[in-house]
Task: inverse folding
């Protein structure tokens, strides 16, 4: 059952990616949301609408939470909830035309079931979950190596690092190096693929829903910076994802 869902959603995400690539041949309409660094484009909205239409047609009883406003605002996590970030890294999409991704996380009764993170321009697609296994393109991924903070690269949200929020710079100093990608999904992808040891940021559910569904089956720990478990219907929170319990403990202790 989950395997079938996996293949169906995978094909939708690839189709969404093709449409996004095609859209880059024409000019993009950019709007400002809460501030000049909080952008949305006509392509974010069109991609969300495309994915929501597919979900509603195939699974009419499911709940949907989308970043760009298409949401039936579920009050509880009961049943199946889809959390969509149609374009994660919108600023990269606008300014670089790459380093962005499409993300979907599927939860059942609050438990992460499947995640999809598609780096459209680099053609790197991680998808899967606990019952199906996690894949990078066609390769099944093994659990991520247990790397300590001192031996790995730490990903961070740029503003959080620049302003040293919650001692982010101190954590960075403990790590081998710091990377700021400007795209939560690509940070998760890097951690999942063992290229980066952890990620510390300020995230909304659509920024981490796919990532946690993909990370946890590979032995990664995901939680709020406070150590509190995440809740998919919460608002924006300081969030960490780490490769190992040791690494996460180190980050929590440093804070
Ligand atoms: C943002 C990006 C960014 C992260 C922000 C997110 P968006 O998502 O993932 O890297 O630092 O917290 O809001 O708005 O581009 O989908
Ligand atoms: Ca946004
Ligand atoms: Ca996002
Ligand atoms: Ca987005």
Result:
């Amino acid at each position: 059952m989950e395997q079938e869902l996996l293949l169906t959603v995978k094909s939708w995400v690839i189709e969404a990616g093709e449409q996004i690539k095609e859209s880059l041949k024409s000019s993009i309409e950019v709007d400002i949301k809460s501030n000049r660094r909080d952008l949305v484009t006509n392509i974010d909205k069109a991609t969300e609408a495309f994915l929501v239409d597919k979900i509603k047609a195939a699974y009419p009883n499911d709940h949907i939470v989308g970043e760009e406003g298409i949401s039936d605002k579920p009050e509880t996590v009961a049943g199946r909830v889809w959390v969509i970030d149609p374009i994660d890294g919108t600023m990269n999409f606008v300014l670089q035309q790459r380093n962005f991704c499409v993300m979907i996380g599927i939860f059942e009764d609050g438990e992460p079931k499947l995640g999809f993170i598609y780096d459209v321009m680099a053609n790197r697609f991680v998808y899967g979950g606990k019952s199906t296994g996690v894949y990078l393109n066609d390769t099944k991924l093994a659990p991520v190596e247990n790397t300590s903070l001192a031996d790995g690269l730490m990903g961070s949200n740029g503003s959080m690092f620049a302003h040293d929020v919650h001692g982010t710079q101190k954590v960075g100093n403990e790590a081998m190096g710091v990377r700021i990608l400007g795209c939560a999904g690509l940070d998760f992808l890097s951690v999942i693929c063992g290229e980066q040891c952890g990620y510390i940021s300020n995230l909304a559910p659509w920024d981490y829903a796919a990532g946690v569904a993909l990370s946890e089956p590979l032995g990664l720990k995901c939680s709020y910076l406070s150590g509190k478990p995440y809740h998919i219907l919460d608002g924006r929170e300081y969030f960490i994802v780490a490769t190992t319990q040791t690494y996460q403990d180190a980050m929590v202790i440093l804070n």
Summary: The CA atoms of residues 82 and 106 lie 5 Å apart. The pocket of calcium ion (ligand 3) is lined by residues 85, 88, 184, 206-207 (CB under 6 Å).
